[in-house]
Structure formats: structure tokens, C-alpha cells
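Q: Predict the assembly, please.
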Amino acid sequence: MENNHKSSEVLPDNYNYYGTRPQGGFQDREVKKPPSIRAEKARTMYLETKSSASVEFPYWYTRRWEELEGEIPIIRRAEALKSGFAHLTPAVLPGELLAMRKANYLRGSYPMPWLSEAFFLSKEDDLYKEAQKAGKASADEATTMGQGGGNVTESSGNVISIAGKFGLRKEEMPILIKTAKRWLNRSVDDVGHKYEQLVPGYDTKEEIMRAVICMFDSGYTLPQGREVINYYYPLQYGIEGIKKICRENQANVAGFPEMDRLYFYKGVHTMLEGLQTWILNYSKEAHLMASLENDQVQKSEYLEIADRLERLSESRPDTFHDALQLVWIFHVAVLNEDAISGLSPGRLGQVLYPYWKQDMNKGILTREKTIELLECMRVKFTEIDCFASMGVVGGVLSGNTFNNLCIGGLDKEGNSAANELEMLILESAISCDTPQPTLSLLFDEKLPEEFLLKGVECTKIGTGYPAWVNNRVAMEFLLNNFRKEGMQSEEARAWAIGGCLETSPGSWMPLELNGETYFIPGGSAPATSVGVHFISLPKVLEAVLFDGLDKRTGRRVYPPHGVELDTYEKIWTIFKHYFSLTVEVLTLTNNIQHDIWGKVSPSLINSMLKPDCLATGKDISHKGSRYNRTFNVEICGGVNLANSLSSLKKNVFDEKTMTLDVLRTAIESNFGYLSALDTGAYSLTDQVKSADYKAWLRIHKLCLDAPKYGNDDKYADDIFREWQLWFSKMCENYKSLYDEPLYSCQISVSTHAPMGAVTLATPDGRLCGTTFADGSVSAYPGSDKNGPYALFNSATCYNHALSQNSQLNMKIHPSVVMGREGSRKFLEMIKAYLRKGAFHAQFNIVDSRMLRDAQKNPADYRGLMVRVAGFTQYWVELGKQIQDEVIARTEYEQLG
Amino acid sequence: MKHYDCKYYLSTDVFKGICKRDKKFINADDDACENYMNAQKCKYCSNFTLTSDELGTCMNKYEAYPEMNAVTCNDFKN
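A: Predicted assembly structure:
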């Protein structure tokens, strides 16, 4: 066996660079601004804190749930939530301006066994083994978790590590197991599993999960999220005001048909009582902290927190600070209702602008104080953790929670919605760079140049936000999909990004303040990305080439097609057949899971917030939201699929440089390389040859040299386009739980790592176990050779509005965008891409050599962040698979 | 006695926290100082009965565990 790395006979030295490979020492990013002292202290404390789980919420939730055996499920759920919130231990830290958090710990979270109880039990436990049998744990095994930062990767002392990320005090484990076991056969997971087995073809679904062709079920893992929250009701009415609405509506519907409305209003009222106790417990804790404090400034801050929380436990806010605190309370409250990733605050700067402008006019707020508050808000959002399995939290989310804050876009009348507060949101994101909330700039030609340049200044700090998103493309997508439910252009403008990149419908709601009415935007749909979650396209193609088998395990996934693949068209036809079979069975089983979720564990807090649930008395699982066509099909590895089809077509059928049998054998032999799973290196450039690599050298080179997406090459782009057009259309053949057609969604998040890990080499020359291309229109690392504008042409070879999103990542060397001139050049390049009809672009402004250094010396880079796919994350909290992929991405040394 | 059991211990994560009195960072499992006072935990509640090393009952009715914070529990009795 040879141990030297990549062969120059196959990959050139500058493989991962466009332009001249940089020499000398690596270059840092350009813009550096410090945060306020207060925010810096809070951020430092965060960076020194470990992800920590606790049991008190699930304990009290379960205890109350069991007391109410026989009660109507939504009332039981409301009472259980009330008890959970009322018993959370409050913690107010020195220096905080915004109080309250998910749990007692700074990065606190907790298991929710009412959703799924098996994954956090020990591997020896019968429940775990049962989950394993159903293929649910396969994604966990293919995932590598970040080994640094706040992850508790190993058990030590009195702390037990769960899912490679969360620490739990040892003394809490026995009660957690007891609590979890009480949900056996009662959790959404278990009840859903019982009924999904009634779907014809269920066995195929299990094999699909086992092969990691699909990453995870959505009904019990992350049933909510990938949506935009709506803060309108608490801001307009306050908690007591909402309770009054509930009482009035209760009286109006009691005894009349559609009685579920009565229970919904009663449930919301009950749940709000729990939130009030929770808030008041924090107020009491702030008083206690004040009583122990000698520093008069700190003491008065504690007392201000106590007073503010006491007010907000009943009343609507009057000031910017109060409004921001109330927004935060409800954001956390929703996150405590379910396991959620991607609960986006949406266009928060436009929601809070009336309060901010009022306070500025009154002279009770300054820009400096605003920035300090916004910086503190950033740290608070960064504290959010989502407790989920390793496959979900590591393999999909990379530990991120996707709280996407949008800026820009258009207002209700169609004018630029950008405002002064959003400029300060950008400023605070520059001075206090943290992963959360990530920013998305809703680009429209009507936005002022000064605002766009501020966005560029922020993007240049190198943390990947704001992402640049095309307002017009999103509106077209929304009108195509939600017109049937009454959406018009005016309301389409209220949209925002939910989660990392899910276009989500919104609405304008009339907020009254000081006699004026302001129409504020907010989310008006439930989770916009549930259903079929991440189908691995290269793995489906692998099954096509090997007659329905998962070659890694030897298990049969699909029925044998038995077709002699002697034309390209036959391969494409069988691919479509297998893919359709996958979507069909996963749609049906996930529909059942989500139905069970709505029955066993309905949403009360998020439902209350979402127009028009309070008006109709229906929760979000009963189509109470204004817009409900929200199920989708997510895919991963689209570019590797297109490149592989291109290679097959070119090499096997057009030019006949190899037979399909030879290519199959080359794939099984990994083109003469060791598997990435054996070497622990996951990018193409770092693979290790085996003894017989020379036997496959010619074949491998032909595969690598076949036309690739991302080079404005018609051969490859036509294949990519054909896939895109077929995919977006075929999704409409399947109906969601709500009897609405599905739509296509194209984000990889982190799934391109674990899904790549279980996939053999592919016909495009990618090697076994290495990651796929990220996003949906990002080129495969190193394969885009003709510069950014060629990449843009490839990416826009189809209409992006056919899909909920598209996703393009680019890595640019900091020197390319340096200075004012660099900013303008950069902005023009972004505009050029979006004007072609692209939906989204995001950027890593970073020297790859710095990332390599960070991989070697993680302790020196605790604060380093990178953009992955729709989110920004601390480098040290990323798994090695994703780290290697980000390093390998083509680095642009010039923009032209 | 450990910081972890002290009324003035404010945990920031499973390993460590802050002393509410002097605001210093402390490890959960280190020995407490002379200002130690029992935290409001189930194990110090008269409604709690220990049934094994790590589990017990609350009001002879509910399963409970000794280390649980009871600062928000209306039934806590010293």
C-alpha cells in the first residue's frame, strides 16, 4: 500500500483554486470591530460553556401528563406544558439585559420523550435496539460530531455525554430513563411507527432509512421549525390580552359544532398561565440577585429586569427594550414546546421599528444603547441548543439552530422595507459576530445602495452572513404555491426565510402604538419544511447501477429493476422510478407521523402566535394557519448526481471509453483508493491510494475529466436542468397530510457529509465516503474551473422559482474583496448573479490555509466561524466531514 | 458539601457555575465555602422519601430524584 496522498496524475496542484494559488502566510479577514464590553463578557462566557441538558422540564411535563389520564389530549398537553414551564429553575446572570433562557443552563436544553424516547438511552437498552432495527439509527452512525467548543463529547466525572454533544449530570440519568420509559408506546415516534407500518411498501421505507438514502423522519424528530415565528399577538395584546381573547372565544364556541375550537382556546389559556408563572419566577430570581448585589449599577439592572418581567407577564410592551424582551420570551417559549430547528425571528428589525423609532424620538434610547441590546440579543440567540439525536443534531444541523433574521425586502405597499434599525442590526452583527441569529438580506432592486453596501461590509467579516436572497424569486415561488389559499402580491411581500433557507409565507398584521397603526410582517404558516427529509440522489443512482442494492451493506433496498442498462435513457428512467418510489413511501409514512404529532402532541404556543389560529380556533396541525401548503421533498447531492449522469453519458454511451461493467467495478474498487471512512479524511484531495490504484487511474481520470456542472458547459448543465425540471414537477404528484401537493426544496444543510459517508464512489470520480457538493447549486469542490460567472450561468440554467430555494456557496480569498473598491466589485458580482434569476448566494471570505491551520490547532480558533450550507457555525463545533468539505471548496482568487 | 448543593450556586453548565454572592466562577463538584447553605432540592424536602441511591418518591405518590431543584415547587417543605 502506498501512503502518499493525492496523485498529481489525477488532480492538479491548484485543484481547489480559481486564479493564482496564494503564497506566503495566510491572510486574515478585513473588518474587525469589537463589541460592547457587556456583550464581549457574555460572549466569552458562552464560549466557555458546555451544552448541557436537564430533566426538570420533561419530569414535570410527564408527571402532569400522567395525572390527567383520560383528559382531552390538547388539554393534557396544555397542562403538561404549563407544569413544565412553571417548574423551570430560573437563572439570571450578571450583566444580562435580556433575561430568560430555555433551561437553567446557559446552553440548556432537554430531551422531549413525548416526541421520541429511544435515541438518548444507552445502546444496551432494548428501546435503543428496537429503534436500530427500524433503521432509525443509521444516520447517527454515519455522522461525525464536532470534537471541540461547547460539545460534551465524552462522559467524565459526574457528567454523562448524550449524542456526543449534551452533558447531563449523572444523578439525573436514572430519572431520565424512568421518565423516558413512561412514553414507551405513547410517544409520537412510537405511535407513528405503529401506524406507518400499515403503509404498503413500508419494508422498503425501512431499507431506505437503513441505507441512509433518507436522512430522517420529520414527524417526531423536528416536527416544527424551518418557519418564521409571528410576534404580533403578544406585542399587540400582551399575555393577559390574549387570555381575554381566549375566554371570549371560549364563550362564543362552547356547545356549538366544531367543538375542538373550545378545547383549543381553553388549552391556550392554560398554557399561557404556565408562561406567566415562568416569567414571574425569573422576576423573583432577579429580585433575589439584586438582594445579593453590592454594585449599585448591577443591582439596579437586576431590579429593572424584575420589573420588566413582571409587567410583561401581563401587559403589552411600551418600549423597544420591553418589546425585544417579550419577543425573546415567546421565541424561547416556542422552542420549549417541541424539538425545533429553524425557528426564524424573520424580519425582526421591521417588527420592532415602531418601538425603536418612538424611543429614539422621545430621547430615551440611543444608537449605542441599541447596538448593545442587539449584541446581547445575538449572544442570547447563540445560546439556543436543540436536543436531538446525533444524526439530526450533528449530521443535519451541525449543532446549529438556524434562527434566521431577515433584513430588507419590500413593505406592504411594495417600497423598500429597509430601515435604520436594520442598519444597526447589521452593525451589531459585525461588532458581535456570533452564529445566531444568522442574517439573510432579502435583495430587491428597490433597496438603497447604502444598505446593500452595509450588507457587503458585514459579509466581508467572513462569517457568512448576511446570505443574499432574491426577493422577486421568492415572491414568484410563493404566489405559485399559495395563491390557491388566497395569497396576493401584497401578502407575498411579507415573506421571510424560515430556518436556513426555506422560503416561508408571511402576513401583515396591524400593530397599534401611540395612536398609529403599523403593518408588521410575521410568519403565517407552520413548518415549511416537513415531509420527505433529504433524499440522497447519488445513493439512489448507486442503487440504479447495482440493481436496487445498497452495495455498502449488501442489503436490498429497492425491488430489482432487472433492466439491462445499455442506454443512458434507461439509467435515467430507472433513476426516476426509484426516486419516485422513495418519495411515495416517505410521503405516506411521514404524513402518518405528522398526523400522530398533531393528535398526541399538538402545538399550542406556536399555534397561538400564527395567524389565523386564534381567530379560527384551530391549531396549526388542523390547518389553523393562513397558509398550509407546507410539506416538501428535500434532496441532497444534486450536483454529484448531475456530474455522475454526465460522466455516464459521456464515457459509457457517447464516447464509449469504458463499459458500464468496468465502471461498476471501478466504483466498487473505489478507483483504487482507500475508503474515506478508513482514512478519516473526507475531501477528494486528501484521499489515500491503495496498492492497485494504477489499475484504475485511466478510468478515474476519465470520470474526473467528464463535463462538470459549474463551468457553463451545456453538456453537464442540460443534464442538471433536466433533473431540476423533472424534480420540481414530480413533487406535485404527492399530497401532504393537508391534501396539498408537495414542493421541492434544495438545501443540504450538513447532510452531504453523512450521506456521502455511506455512498460508494460515484461515476463523476468522487471517492467512497467523501462528502457530496454542498447546497444545491454549489459546484463540487475543485470542479468549477471557469470562474464565478461561468458558475452563475450553470446555476441559473433553470428557473429557481420552481423550488422553495436554491443554495450557492462560494469561498473567496479575503484579498479579493479588500477595501471600498473590493466591496463595490463584490456587490456587483452578487447583483449580477441575482439578476440572472438566482435565489441565493452565501460566501466564506476566508483563506483556506487558515482553516487548515485551525484544523491542526483548534485551541487557537475557538471563535472562528465559517459558513456551511445555510448557516454559520463555530469551526471547532463542526464534525471533521464538514470541516474537510469547507476546506476543499474552490477558493476564488479573483472575481472575473 | 459541594457548590452544587449550595443555595448560592448558579449553574451555567453541567460542570460549573457562578457563586451568586461573589460572582466567581466555581466548579459544581468542588467543596463549598463557609457561606454554604442548602439549596432548595428535593432531598432537603420533607415530602421526599429516598427509595434508592438516586431515586425516591414525592408525597409518597410520584417518582422523584433527590438532586432535583425544587426552587419553583409549591409543595417544597423544609
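The first helix of chain A runs from residue 37 to 47. Chain A touches chain B through 40 residues (CB under 8 Å).
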